[in-house]
């Protein structure tokens, strides 16, 4: 099954800076989702972007999707220490509506 | 409150002793899944279910069984656990659309 690949694996920034993480995938998708996971806890859904959409916003989050490059990016603006977490992209493709997850990007925001 | 619950949250067991991890959701979701999470490997899907009595293998089904007799419950069964099944397990549920998954709090399993 297809798996998104997040990049970078780890990201360390200062509070107030923007954080950008990327997700690349191999085959056409129906939609792409981003999730956040605080250490050892369940994943929390952040945003879903469909294959016919190019950009979505939710609060301080901005997600873009470039289907020609088979990639997506998640931008967190004005980061806070509470944004420290792992971020996963998940893709759904073909007839499967169960998303497949990547390995995640670990974000540390220093206060 | 809409939620997915898992029990137990922590479990230490020995090789070969059958165990069941329960999962229950109160959102009337059709889809339910089990994942395991291991360092450096991300989340890997074990089994999923599209509705009652309909289950299918994910990416890493070996050594696991599931059942879906009721819509709200999706237990994960390890008939003969082995140390390589030591992991963090997550149950998730979702409606048919728009595919957003709701995750349980996780079960940390250690098999010695």
Notes on the protein architecture:
The complex is a heterodimer of chains A (111) and B (112). Chain A is mainly beta. Chain A has strands spanning 5-7, 10-14, 19-24, 31-37, 44-50, 55-58, 61-66, 71-76, 85-92, 100-101, 105-110. By secondary structure, chain B is mainly beta. Chain B is 0% helix and 51% strand. In chain B, a hairpin with a 7-residue loop joins strand 9 (87-94) and strand 10 (102-103). Chain B is globular. The model of chain B has no long low-confidence stretch (mean pLDDT 94). Chains A and B meet through strand 4, strand 5, strand 9 and strand 10 of A and strand 4, strand 5, strand 9 and strand 10 of B.
Computed CA radius of gyration of chain A, to the nearest angstrom: 13 Å
Total DSSP E strands of chain A: 11
Number of helices of chain A: 0
Taken as a percent bin, the fraction of beta residues of chain A is over 45%
Overall body shape of chain B: globular
Question: Which terms summarize this structure?
Answer:
heterodimer, A: 111 residues, mainly beta, 11 strands, 54% strand, B: 112 residues, 7-stranded mixed β-sheet, 4-stranded antiparallel β-sheet
Blueprint (SSEs and pairs):
The complex is a heterodimer of chains A (111) and B (112).
Chain A: E1 5-7, E2 10-14, E3 19-24, E4 31-37, E5 44-50, E6 55-58, E7 61-66, E8 71-76, E9 85-92, E10 100-101, E11 105-110
Chain B: E1 4-7, E2 10-13, E3 19-25, E4 31-38, E5 42-51, E6 54-57, E7 65-66, E8 76-78, E9 87-94, E10 102-103, E11 107-111
Parallel strand pairs in B: 2-11
Antiparallel strand pairs in B: 1-3, 3-8, 4-5, 4-9, 5-6, 7-8, 9-10, 9-11
Describe the structure concisely for a colleague.
With 111 residues, chain A is an all-beta fold. Chain A has strands at residues 5-7, 10-14, 19-24, 31-37, 44-50, 55-58, 61-66, 71-76, 85-92, 100-101, 105-110. The interface between A and B is medium-sized, with 24 and 29 residues.
């Amino acid at each position: 099954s297809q798996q998104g690949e997040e990049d970078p694996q780890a990201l360390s920034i200062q509070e107030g800076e923007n954080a950008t993480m990327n997700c690349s995938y191999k085959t056409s998708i129906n939609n792409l989702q981003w999730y956040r996971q605080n250490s050892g806890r369940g994943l929390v859904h952040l945003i879903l972007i469909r294959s016919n959409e190019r950009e979505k916003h939710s609060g301080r989050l901005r997600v873009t999707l470039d289907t020609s490059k088979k990639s997506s990016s998640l931008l967190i603006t004005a980061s806070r220490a509470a944004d420290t977490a792992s971020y996963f992209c998940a893709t759904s493709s073909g007839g499967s509506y169960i998303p497949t997850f990547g390995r995640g990007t670990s974000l540390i925001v220093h206060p | 409150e809409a939620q997915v619950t898992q029990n137990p949250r922590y479990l230490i067991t020995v090789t070969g002793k059958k165990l069941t991890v329960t999962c229950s959701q109160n959102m009337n979701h059709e889809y339910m899944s089990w994942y395991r999470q291991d360092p450096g490997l991300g989340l890997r899907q074990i089994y999923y279910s599209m509705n009652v009595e309909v289950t299918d293998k994910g990416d890493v089904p070996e050594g696991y069984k599931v059942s879906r007799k009721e819509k709200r419950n999706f237990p994960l069964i390890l008939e003969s656990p082995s140390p390589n099944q030591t992991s963090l397990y997550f149950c998730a549920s979702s409606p048919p659309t728009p595919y957003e998954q709701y995750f349980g709090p996780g079960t940390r399993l250690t098999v010695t």
